[in-house]
């Protein structure tokens, strides 16, 4: 049984750890004006997560059943506020330090002052902007990022401009297409009259925003490639002649990071022809680049590089419904049959088997909704990955499953047995 007091006592322990960290490092105390909890040592990171999760539980208990659901039901108002801030570039009309007036923001953005006041209120209730006096507005740590961190600006823009309207079409899409799993039968396609990949190709500005937003969401410790580099025994295959095929490798950022931390492995980055052309141009001319090759290859067709040591896929299967994932895996089987030591290595988000209640683990269910609405893809549990393997080929076995400490992503190694 939990009590309000026992939860509050847990919170006190974590809060004390954070305050000790700030004091012992001569850092200013916590404030909404400046973030002080950055680059935390592991144990302080754990204390912070615990504080976030326990305060959330305490708040939800105190809210009661109606309050908990209503908070979600009304959350679109906060997103509307962010949408206005993004679209009218309100943050750029406020000096990074000091303050300005509502009327000055209205003049700079050509939006009536009354709307500026109204749009900013929901954001201010989350300490995004502040109003030092009745007539003035100043930045906080969060609102300043709209100006100082372009990827953050685009990360908000993608959600508010592109994904919120798509979310509103998702129930319609399920009614219309059921579980077809087709990439062109999604809420995104209903909203935009074409699937995501076509939109990104046809409208470069939207493609650029999509890329910037992805960088924003995957920045930080949880998505650091270090977890893939240190969490898998690349050393055991790092001998002359070893080959890693980076299937759907995009511009080759994963292969580049791996090449820098290995000595002998040759990397073949495969993707669709347009992406490969672009990737070749962008490859930095450093000493590791000599071990990276590019090849146009459609991963739904038989793998062209047979008997490689590893077929690596980061963020590939989550883009696709089960039927397509099965096709991608089956296309690798003939290549795996050539060498019994060959492995498939997935680097993917893996959902926990039971629904998460910790706020710090919300990203998984959130990403899963995005994958459904935009791609007809899915984030999966370990059990769901295992069942994909079984459907693709009964000889495919999950031989390793590692979620490195501090990583949001897991490493799954798969072998072809028998
Ligand atoms: C989410 S991105 C992941 C890129 C890369 N693995 C990474 O982690 O940075 C998915 C990639 O799959 C590629 N892709 C989509 N369909 C493909 C296909 N049929 N064959 C090969 N690559 C494909 C896309 O061009 C894109 O680069």
Chart the SSEs and their pairings.
Layout: H1 4-24, H2 42-73, H3 76-87, E1 99-101, H4 102-109, H5 113-124, E2 136-138, H6 141-148, H7 150-167, H8 170-177, H9 187-192, H10 196-202, H11 204-217, H12 226-231, E3 243-247, H13 253-261, E4 266-271, H14 273-282, E5 292-296, E6 310-314, H15 322-330, H16 333-337, E7 343-351, H17 363-375, E8 380-381, H18 382-392, E9 396-402, E10 409-416
Parallel strand pairs: 3-4, 3-6, 4-5, 6-7, 7-8
Antiparallel strand pairs: 1-2, 7-10, 9-10
This protein binds S-adenosylmethionine.
Structure explained in plain terms:
With 418 residues, the protein is an alpha/beta fold. The protein has 4 domains: 4-73, no CATH class; 76-148, Winged helix-like DNA-binding domain superfamily/Winged helix DNA-binding domain (Arc Repressor Mutant, subunit A, Orthogonal Bundle); 151-217, no CATH class; 221-416, 3-Layer(aba) Sandwich (Rossmann fold), CATH 3.40.50. 50% of the residues lie in helices and 13% in strands. The chain is built from 18 helices and 10 strands. Strands 3, 4, 5, 6, 7, 8, 9 and 10 form an 8-stranded mixed β-sheet that branches. α13 (253-261) links the parallel β3 (243-247) and β4 (266-271). The protein is globular and about 70 Å long. It starts with a helix and ends with a strand. Bound molecules: S-adenosylmethionine (SAM).
